[in-house]
Design brief:
The protein is mostly beta strands. The chain has 4 helices and 18 strands. The termini are far apart.
Length: 260
């Protein structure tokens, strides 16, 4: 038996909104540690990794590990039937071919439940190697979303270069060129507004704009975003989800001289 109860169901809505552009369907792996999802996007360019720890739920029970193959568009349709303040309970039997979502209004006067069929997905679990990154940049997530959006007007690729002076985002195309530089913030009252850079060695890498823009759909989940970069390994874009877990996007750098 699997059962997870969440007082704020809006959080799960935001998680689905953050991955629906990249994934049509995915397997939610449930264990007593929590819920994990790991999947390549539809074009096999980026990887999405989601981790929701069991202690973040108000009630969590998972007697044995189960994997639920879910069509994300269908799940989002169901989640949109809930009010933002509704309490959500997700239930599934072991070996079930469907999963149930139950929404209760705060005053408990309205309870609705929805059954959704599970789908069979054969997704191999990809081992993500532990990497020590040369540069780890933390910046406000809204700032990052704005930079990605603005630069995508200029070119299909964004060059991110990190030095001890700061981090620079650049793009160039038919219109012209754009450069946005962020220096480390020295003293900020609010931690989430800070830009911090931990650097072992400078790194400059090029990434496809449209994936970065898809990743920024996770902005509502977290005030800060963390970018981890090293030469020749995928960029990691991580959004923390409160005290709950995280969502990470991995994107391989573009090799120069390579036409789309």
């Amino acid at each position: 038996m699997f059962e997870a109860r969440l007082v704020q169901c809006s959080m799960l809505k935001k998680v689905l909104e953050a991955i629906k552009e990249l994934l049509n369907e995915a397997t939610f792996d449930c264990s007593d540690a929590g819920i994990q999802l790991q999947a390549m996007d539809n074009s096999h360019v980026s990887l999405v990794s989601l981790n929701l720890r069991s202690d973040g739920f108000d009630k969590y029970r998972c007697d044995r590990n189960i994997s639920m193959g879910i069509n994300l568009a269908s799940m989002l349709k169901i989640m949109k039937c809930a009010g933002n303040d509704d309490v959500l309970t997700i239930k599934a039997q072991d070996n079930a071919d469907n999963v149930m979502f139950m929404f209760e209004s705060q005053n408990q006067e309205k309870v609705s439940d929805y059954d959704m069929k599970l789908i069979n997905l054969d997704q191999e679990h990809l081992g993500i190697p532990e990497t020590d990154y040369s540069c780890i940049i933390k910046l406000p997530s809204q700032e990052f979303a704005r930079i990605c959006r603005d630069l995508s007007q200029f070119g299909e690729s964004v060059i991110i270069s990190c030095t001890k002076e700061g981090v620079k985002f650049s793009a160039a195309g038919d219109v012209g060129a754009a450069n946005i530089k962020l220096a480390q913030t020295a003293n900020v009252d609010k931690e989430e507004e800070a830009v911090t850079i931990e650097m072992q060695e400078p790194v400059t890498l090029t990434f496809a704009c449209r994936y970065l823009n898809s990743f920024t759909k996770a902005t509502p989940l977290s005030p800060q975003v963390q970018l981890s970069m090293s030469a020749d390994v995928p960029l990691v874009v991580e959004y923390k989800i409160g005290d709950f877990g995280h969502i990470r996007y991995y994107l391989a750098p573009k090799i120069e001289e390579e036409d789309e």
